[in-house]
Q: What sequence folds into this?
C-alpha cells in the first residue's frame, strides 16, 4: 500500500498541526478493537442458533480472536516499527474491515471462526501501531497526557459500550451487524489516517529476528491456549499441562535468543527498565483481576437477576461514564503529580469497589449493591489506565516504540486469559461446594450458590488489584518531569 511520504510541515512551535486529528483517528480505531472484545459476546447465542454452533465449539467465537491477537502482537509491533507505523495502521484497518465483513456474511461456523482469527491477525498489526503513533505524535507532556487520557478512557469504558451496542444490534437487527458495524468505522478511520496521520519508522537495522518471531509467537499461542484449556477443562487436564509446559519452554528460549541476537524482535532493554517492566507486570495483574468484573457481574445480572442482554449492557453504563469523567481528571493530574500518586490509590479504590461486590446476593438490588461499586471502580481504574499507558512507553527509543506498545497489549491479553482460567475455576469450585453444603435451602440454593461463586471470584480479583498496587508502588519511580522522555523520532 502506498502512503504519502511528503515531509511533515510542523507549526511554529515545532509540533504536528494534525496531531489532534491523529488522536481522533487512533481513538476511533482503538474503540473498534475494544468494542470487538465485548460486542461479539452478546451475538453468540443468536449466532449459535443461526449457524448450528455446538456448545463445545461456541468458545471459538472468542478464542479464535484472542489466540491470533495475543500471539502476534509482538511481531505486529516490530512490523510497524520497520515498515512504517502509518502504513501498517492503515493495512491493519483495511484487513480488520475485510475480516469483519467476512464474519458478518458467514454461512457456517468454520467461516465465522476463520474470520475471527483474521480479525485477531490484523488487530495485532493495528493495536501497537495505534499506540506508537500517539507516542511519536505528541511530544508536549501535557498534550501527551491528554492523548493517553482519551485512549485510556476508551480502553476502560469501551467494553461496556460494546455490550450496549451488541445488545441493540442483536435485538433490533441481527447478530451479523455486531461484526458488520466494524466495516464503515474502519473505512472511515483508514481514510482519515491517510490524510492526517504522519509516517514514522524506527531507525537502525531493519532485519527480522526469525528465531525470536517463531519462539515468541508459538510460546504466546501455547500460553493463551493453555489458559483457555484450563478455563474449559480444568488445570489438571493433560492438554492444559502440556500447553503451559510448552509455553514456558518456548518463552524461556525466546528470552535466551533475545539476549544473544544482534537485532532482537523484543530487545530486553524494553522490559528491563524498571518503569516499563513494572507497567507490563502491573498491566498483566490488573488484566487478570479486572476481567472478573465484566465476566461475572454480567452473568449475575443476566442469570441471577434475569436482565436481558441489552439491559445488562446499560447496567454497565455508569462504569463507562465514570471512566470517561475520571480519565479527563487523570490526564490533568498526571503532568502535575506523576504516575505513582495516581496509580497506587486508583488500584486500591478499584479493589475496594470489587470487595463491595462481594455483598451481592440473589435478593439484593442493582441500585444499592452494584451501582456504587461500579462508580468507585471506574474512578479508580481511570487513575490507572492513563498513567499505565504512559509509563509503559517511558524513555523508550524510537527504534522500540512499536514493540513497547505491543508489550502493554500483550500483558493485558495474557492477564485477561489468565484471569478467565483462574477465576472461572475459583467461581465454579466455590459454587459447587456451597450448593453441596446448603441443600436444606431447597430451590433457592442454585441461585445463591452461583452468586456465592461470583463473590469468591470478586474477592480474589480484589486481591489481585491490591497486589498490582504493591507492584506499581515499588517499580514506578519516574517523576512528573521525566514521565514523557523519549528519544528522537524519525518522520517521513
A:
Amino acid at each position: 500500500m502506498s502512503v504519502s511520504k511528503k515531509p511533515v510541515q510542523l507549526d511554529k512551535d515545532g509540533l504536528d498541526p494534525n496531531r489532534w486529528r491523529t488522536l481522533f483517528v487512533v481513538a476511533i480505531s482503538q474503540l473498534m478493537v475494544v468494542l470487538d472484545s465485548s460486542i461479539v459476546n452478546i451475538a453468540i447465542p443468536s449466532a449459535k442458533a443461526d449457524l448450528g454452533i455446538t456448545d463445545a465449539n461456541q468458545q471459538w467465537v472468542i478464542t479464535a480472536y484472542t489466540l491470533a491477537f495475543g500471539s502476534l502482537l509482538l511481531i505486529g509491533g516490530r512490523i510497524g516499527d520497520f515498515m512504517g507505523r502509518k502504513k501498517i495502521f492503515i493495512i491493519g484497518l483495511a484487513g480488520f474491515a475485510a475480516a469483519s465483513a467476512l464474519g458478518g456474511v458467514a454461512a457456517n461456523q468454520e467461516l465465522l471462526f476463520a474470520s475471527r482469527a483474521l480479525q485477531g491477525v490484523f488487530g495485532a498489526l493495528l493495536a501497537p501501531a495505534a499506540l506508537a503513533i500517539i507516542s511519536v505524535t505528541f511530544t508536549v507532556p501535557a498534550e501527551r497526557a491528554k492523548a493517553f487520557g482519551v485512549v485510556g478512557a476508551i480502553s476502560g469504558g469501551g467494553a461496556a459500550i460494546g455490550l450496549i451496542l451488541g445488545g441493540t444490534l442483536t435485538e433490533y437487527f441481527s447478530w451479523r451487524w455486531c461484526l458488520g458495524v466494524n466495516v464503515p468505522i474502519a473505512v472511515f478511520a483508514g481514510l482519515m489516517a491517510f490524510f492526517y496521520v504522519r509516517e514514522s519508522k524506527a531507525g537502525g537495522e531493519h532485519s527480522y529476528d526469525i528465531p525470536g518471531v517463531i519462539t515468541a509467537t508459538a510460546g504466546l499461542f501455547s500460553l493463551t491456549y493453555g489458559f483457555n484449556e484450563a478455563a474449559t477443562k480444568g488445570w489438571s487436564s493433560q492438554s492444559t499441562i502440556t500447553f503451559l509446559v510448552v509455553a514456558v519452554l518456548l518463552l524461556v528460549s525466546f528470552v535466551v535468543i533475545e539476549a544473544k541476537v544482534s537485532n532482537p524482535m523484543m530487545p530486553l532493554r524494553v522490559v528491563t527498565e524498571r518503569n516499563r517492566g513494572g507497567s507490563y507486570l502491573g498491566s498483566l495483574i490488573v488484566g487478570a483481576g479486572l476481567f472478573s468484573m465484566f465476566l461475572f457481574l454480567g452473568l449475575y445480572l443476566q442469570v441471577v437477576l434475569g436482565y436481558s442482554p441489552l439491559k445488562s449492557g446499560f447496567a454497565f453504563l455508569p462504569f463507562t461514564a465514570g471512566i470517561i469523567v475520571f480519565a479527563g481528571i487523570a490526564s490533568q493530574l498526571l503532568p502535575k503529580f506523576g504516575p505513582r500518586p495516581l496509580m497506587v490509590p486508583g488500584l486500591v479504590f478499584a479493589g475496594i469497589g470489587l470487595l463491595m461486590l462481594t455483598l451481592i446476593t440473589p435478593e439484593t438490588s442493582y441500585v444499592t449493591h452494584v451501582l456504587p461499586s461500579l462508580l468507585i471502580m471506574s474512578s479508580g481504574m481511570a487513575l490507572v489506565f492513563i498513567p499505565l499507558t504512559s509509563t509503559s512507553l517511558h524513555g523508550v527509543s524510537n527504534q522500540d516504540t512499536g514493540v513497547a506498545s505491543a508489550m502493554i497489549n500483550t500483558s493485558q491479553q495474557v492477564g485477561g486469559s489468565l484471569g478467565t482460567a483462574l477465576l472461572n475455576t475459583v467461581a465454579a469450585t466455590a459454587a459447587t461446594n456451597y450448593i453441596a453444603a446448603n441443600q436444606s435451602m431447597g430451590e433457592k440454593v442454585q441461585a445463591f450458590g452461583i452468586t456465592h461463586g461470583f463473590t469468591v471470584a470478586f474477592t480474589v480479583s480484589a486481591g489481585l488489584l491490591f497486589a498490582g498496587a504493591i507492584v506499581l508502588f515499588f517499580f514506578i519511580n519516574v517523576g512528573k518531569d521525566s514521565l514523557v522522555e523519549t528519544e528522537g523520532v524519525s518522520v517521513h
Remarks:
- The beta strands are 200-201, 490-491.
- DSSP finds 17 helices and two strands in the chain.
